[in-house]
Amino acid sequence: MLDYDKEADAYDATRGGEPRAAAAAEAVLGFVPQDARGLLDVACGTGIVTRRLAAARPALGVTGLDAAPAMARRAAARLPGAVLLADSRQLPFPDGVFDAVTTVWLLHLVDGPADARAIIAECARVLRPGGVYITTVDKAAAHDVGSDIDAVLAARPRRPAQDSPDQVGAYAGEFGLRPAGTARFRGHGQGRSPSSTTADLRRGWFTMLPPGEPLTERFAAELELLPDQERPRADPEFTILAFRKPSAG
């Protein structure tokens, strides 16, 4: 996994910046009830999406939380007094205190199913009855857009996806959450070019292809043969699922 303390300075610029953040925030807010008064953004990163959630709904008290100190510091600069440093598997809140909880681009990063299950359990726990849990799913798969780059990388080893819709839905159901809808949004500015993908390979972006390994260099060499080295291919489209906690009674 990437070191997100080291990634913090360049994170926004390399992940689509404000256009992608705007698209993500709009998709998330489509599931947040208009009368919601509290939202927790778990693994808020630099706060680039979190800030937009707060700005779009002035009456919505937004709290951000991240486990990486450098990320949390950046988020805190955007939302002073509203960001905590904490583990998403052990949220530092009592039961039933938020109307909405989000995990945007988190579940695909966890080491295994136990962590994904623990995170979803905690998100369900801190939701009020009637509240909504909103999460991205299938993050890695979204980047496979059918391009020539994807054809080169098709045979690469992959980590098991911890954010598959079926698995996320199963965990949500286990903790009493019911499906409440799905949405998709564009990952503006994240279309891969051959040159950028080669650079990502060589810096360890692809977790099953360590930098400097022969297999990694083989894929890099194949990418360097593709045409239009600097031309980004299609942007990914990300998927969001929403789940509702039944109202009491």
Q: Can you summarize this structure?
A:
This protein is α/β, with parallel strands linked by helices and about 250 residues long. The protein has ten helices and seven strands.
Describe this structure in words.
There is one protein chain. 39% of the residues lie in helices and 19% in strands. With 249 residues, it is an alpha/beta fold. It folds into two domains: 4-190 and 234-244, Vaccinia Virus protein VP39 (Rossmann fold, 3-Layer(aba) Sandwich); 193-231, no CATH class. Strands 3-2-1-4-5-7-6 form a seven-stranded mixed β-sheet. It is globular, with a radius of gyration of 18 Å.
Class by helix and strand content?
Answer: alpha/beta
Q: Which regions are unreliable across 5 or more consecutive residues at pLDDT < 50?
A: none
> What is the number of beta strands?
7
Percent in strands:
15-25%
